[in-house]
Amino acid sequence: MDSSNTYEPEIPDYYADLGISQQASLQEIKTAFQKLAKKHHPDKKAPGQSIDAHEFRKVREAYEQLRDNDKRRIYDASYSDLREKWTSYKAWKENEMKHEEMKRAEQERQAAKARAEERRKAAEAERMRKMEEILREAMEKEKRENLRKERVRQAEERSRETARRAREQQEQAAKERLRRQKEKEAERRSEEAARKARAEREQAAQERLKAILIEEKQEASRQRWAKMREAADRREATKRQQARTKQVHPQYTWRERMVAKEKQGVSPQPTPAREQAEKTPRFTPQTYNPKGNPQPSWRDRATPRTQGEEARKTVPLQPTGNNTPRFTWREREAAKNSKSGLRAS
């Protein structure tokens, strides 16, 4: 074959690119272009199937060349020689493709033969490997059996040793439990003795605190009665002083003074409630006595009537009834704090 046919002609075969004959009309050219443009346009391809727009550019170039009458006339002048070149090139290209196909078939046959040989060798190697594996498994089985027997012997030995140690541990644990029980019993007796001693100390402290609080309460009561007695003495002395003072004008009662002021035409002024209360005689209740004898009030008890009675009254009288002291809030809090301090010690 001529070597010139091995090269693709530089001028394309526009009629072959559009799939029409040389005698096709302009309308046929346009119809063929539209059909091929829709087929090869990149926008009409599915995603990933259009690498470039080579086919579309070839069809568009042929259409642009053939729709112009002047360009088509010049192109048709040399189209016969160009078609022969393209025919020869396509024939050569087809032969080359057949040769390449035969070559690929031969290569595939050789590759299949090589793969078959490799599979045979692999099968032989697998057979040898299996034989070696069988022998190795037999040896390993015998070895495992020997190891199993040795392990059984060692396990029996360990079992006997474990049983001996367990007996020793049980004996040691029994001794330890007995020792702990004795220690717990001794601790319990010690704690019981300490608890009793602490309870006795707390009881004694409470008794001491109670006695102190009673003494403080009695001292406060004595001071309170002494103050009340002094106040009553001062009031009694004031009354005696006022009784000794002589006034020129006669003493009138409140009602008589009011009547006198009304007669004189002077509006009465209200007497202060304090003065009225002082002039009004006070009612002194008597303390109930189950024996039937009236008891003197606190004013009578606090104020001696004679000097002999005042000399005899060194200790104030206590109210009848329950002798249990009534503690204040501060005294109760002090007692609680002292109890907590004694328990902590």
Topology at a glance:
Elements: H1 14-18, H2 26-40, H3 54-66, H4 69-77, H5 79-244, H6 254-263, H7 273-279, H8 298-302, H9 307-312, H10 329-344
N-to-C terminal Cα separation, in Å?
Answer: 128 Å
Radius of gyration: 70 Å
Query: Count of helical segments?
Result: 10
Roughly what percent helix?
over 70%
Unreliable spans are 270-322
The chain-level mean pLDDT equals 75
| DSSP strand content | under 5%
Oligomer status: single chain
Could you say which overall geometry the principal axes of the C-alpha atoms support? Answer: elongated
Query: Structural class from helices and strands?
Result: mainly alpha
Strands, total number: 0
Major sheet characteristics: none
N-to-C SSE string, H for helix and E for strand? HHHHHHHHHH
Brief overview, please?
The chain is mostly helical. Helix content is 73%, strand content 0%.
Q: Which tags fit this structure?
A:
345 residues, mainly alpha, Helix Hairpins, 10 helices, elongated
Give an account of the 3D structure.
- The chain is mostly helical and 345 residues long.
- Among the domains are: 3-77, DnaJ domain (Helix Hairpins, Orthogonal Bundle), CATH 1.10.287; 108-223 and 331-345.
- The chain contains ten helices and no strands.
- The chain has helices at residues 14-18, 26-40, 54-66, 69-77, 79-244, 254-263, 273-279, 298-302, 307-312, 329-344.
- Helix 2 (26-40) packs antiparallel against helix 3 and helix 5 packs across helix 10.
- The longest helix is centred in the middle third of the chain and has 166 residues, at 79-244.
- The two termini are 128 Å apart.
- Residues 270-322 have low confidence and may be disordered.
